[in-house]
Structures are given as structure tokens and as C-alpha cells.
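Researcher: Here's the sequence for the chain we discussed earlier.
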Amino acid sequence: MKRLATAIFLAAMVPSGSAWGQCVMCFRTAAAQNAARSHLLNIGIVLLGLPPFAILAGFLGLAWRRNQEFTAPPDDAQ
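Model: Thanks. This is the structure I predict for it:
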């Protein structure tokens, strides 16, 4: 999980020649601004997207762990 968050954050830090906003409205807003402000907008978009993905990863991890508990053979097999 830490690697994924780091990769997404570093991908947002990569300078690009054009604005690469996530939606049309964000793209037009970033294109109308200078490079530094569009870069900050892209970082903000990525940072706002991290909590939902972290919550989803937590739910998936919990479901996987619970599934492993129920599929494990019982210890009292006689």
C-alpha cells in the first residue's frame, strides 16, 4: 500500500508539458493557469483521491483476511 501511494504521489510530481487534469473542467482550469499552479492542482487532485482508495484497500484487506480465517482448516480435526 505504501508503494502504491508513493507511486501515485511521484507520478503527480512529474512535470509535464501540458496540463493533465483529471476531468474536462479540471483540465480547462489547469490549462488556463501557469505551469506552477496547474502542477499544484494536479497534486491536489491526487491527494483528494488517496483517501477513497485507502478506504477501499482497507475493506479489501479486511475481506481477504476474514476469508482466510473461514477457509482455514479447523484446529480440532480428530
